[in-house]
Design brief:
Structural class: alpha+beta
CATH topology of the largest domain: Metal Transport, Frataxin, Chain A
Distance between the termini: 84 Å
Order of helices and strands: HEEEHHHHH
CATH superfamily of the largest domain: Hypothetical protein
Shape: rod-shaped
């Protein structure tokens, strides 16, 4: 089994989109995956030295979460490693604060009634009420 140098590990991290978080006796990195999970690793400053096959296998499995072939493909192709995982769903749009304020304090809506509205419904409701002539 071919093992990389620490420089090759660092090159993998750059290509794969890892973020450098600090440097002490080692350089520390993290990567946030599409599903929101966070991977962490560190790289020795012993640049051109290699590591044992056992250590490399452990780093691949426990820190980088890629296979042997994927690791070398990232270095060969210059493209990030493929990782399965669902993207974090986008947070639902919140009703703007000014809309909530108008619904509660001007139009007398309860918190439960406001929570049942979408942002578009809430704004439309306000605009319809505001466009009506006042008695």
């Amino acid at each position: 089994m071919r093992t990389p140098t620490w420089q090759e590990i660092e090159q993998f991290l750059r290509v794969d989109g890892w973020e450098s978080v600090r440097s002490t006796g080692h350089s520390h990195y993290r990567k946030v995956l599409a599903d929101g999970s966070v991977l962490r690793t560190h790289v020795s400053l012993a640049g051109d030295r290699t590591m044992s096959p056992e250590r490399f296998a452990l780093i691949l499995r426990a820190q980088l979460e890629v296979g042997y072939d994927d690791f070398w493909n990232v270095l060969r192709t210059g493209r990030p490693a493929p990782r399965p995982g669902a993207a974090v769903p986008e947070a639902p749009k919140a009703i703007p604060a000014w809309v909530v304020n108008a619904l509660k304090h001007q139009l007398g809506k309860s918190d439960e009634e406001i929570a049942a509205m979408t942002p578009q419904e809430a704004e439309r409701y306000i605009r319809e009420r505001w466009s009506q002539p006042r008695p």
